[in-house]
Amino acid sequence: MKQRLLFFFCLLTLSLSVSAHYTIHSVSGDVKVESGGKTLPATKGMTVNAIDYIVIAKGAKVEILNDLDKRIYTCITPGRTSVTKLMIAARGSAADNTSSVASRMTLGRKGGADNKNVYVEKGMVRRSLAVYDPDGDTMELDAETLGRFLAARILADPHDFSEESPVKFNCGRLENGGIGFKLENTMQFPIYLNVLRVSGGQSPVVEISQVGQPTGTYVVLPQQSLVREHFPPVPKDESHFIVMTNCQFDVDKVIEVINKNMKDSSESDSIDKDLPVYVASF
Known about the structure:
By secondary structure, the chain is α+β, with helices and mostly antiparallel strands. The protein has helices at about 1-20, 85-90, 95-100, 125-130, 145-155, 250-265; strands at about 20-30, 30-35, 40, 45-50, 55, 60-65, 70-75, 80, 95, 120, 140, 170-175, 180-185, 190-200, 205-210, 220, 225-230, 240-245, 275-280.
């Protein structure tokens, strides 16, 4: 009987370590991680396993993001404990990461999207992005919601997106007829952006801009700048617009939804007009 229980415990521990994905969300004070026979200082963005141990000094604090339930677990109890036991002990006070992402910024708007349906769970976790942005790595803006929002804006007037930028931002036409933009992230967290273009005159079609990012989105960390220029002349009747958000989004799906909704604007009255999205045309 004891052998069966031991086998079951080992199997359960192995299952947890394989399926779970934990990331150090924040660290305050002296916190260390024991993993694979090594002891390392705990740092923001570090990946830990269920069978690793966290060593917390007196007065220190660690927060761990669980990718399975998108919740943040906090521990301030001094001592040495496994990640699994820490999760169990802190379960009652875990914070919902969706609301954390949603509350980052309003991007110049009076309100902000309180509706968690604006955010969806991202299918694949990328280690490199988790280091950049542990808060936003596992979440993305819902493509359907964002696409319908942008379609309504374009149908209203594709050449006039007049909003106050939340960061240092300049965009426009170059002297030779090309286009470009420069952005400096003055926020305290990463921002995500892409650039789309509208062409087709009376039958507008949205595509990726020549200064856009065809796969994923640009990610700009705090105190970083991004410059992108396209020197060949672009048609004067094309309108290019930047889409800046607090979270990543699937640009292909968003473009698909935009083009679909521009052909049928019957649901424009039900579109959420307070999304945490900044849009500027040039």
